Amino acid sequence: MSEIPILSTKIQDFILRGGRRVPLYSRVVEAAPYEAIVIPASGKELTVQLRCQDLSWNDFLSSVSNYFTPAYQPIDSVTNILFSSGTTGEPKAIPWTQHSPIRCAAVTWAHIDVQERDVFCWPTN
């Protein structure tokens, strides 16, 4: 099966960390020509200038219809890209596949004994 190209990226304009604004959108602009949908880190308005092919989160939401057609992909298809905070070094991208949340749920069930109706919280920033 051939690789499906990434059509768009959803990303914050900045990461708010320890009272600092760490640029995130600008790193995507430097790294990839793909369309980006940019979410404000705080409030409703972006504080960055977007490229012509990019959309703000609000513009994206107003442009989508009330339904979608699912795109069936192999289990190892990337669905999300998380970003580490860089507390132990440089911030880095962490690709998640369709398998990642399933694996997290299985490990949580097996090792933390999370059961139906339990409330589970893993705070982070």
TrEMBL record:
Keyword Cytoplasm: no
Transcription regulation is among the record's keywords: no
Domain AMP-dependent synthetase/ligase: residue ranges: 68-123
Keywords: Phenylpropanoid metabolism
GO biological process: phenylpropanoid metabolic process
Name recorded for this polypeptide: DH200=94 genomic scaffold, scaffold_1019
InterPro entries, sorted: AMP-binding_CS, AMP-dep_synth/lig_dom, ANL_N_sf
Tree of life domain: Eukaryota
Pathway membership: Phytoalexin biosynthesis; 3,4',5-trihydroxystilbene biosynthesis; 3,4',5-trihydroxystilbene from trans-4-coumarate: step 1/2
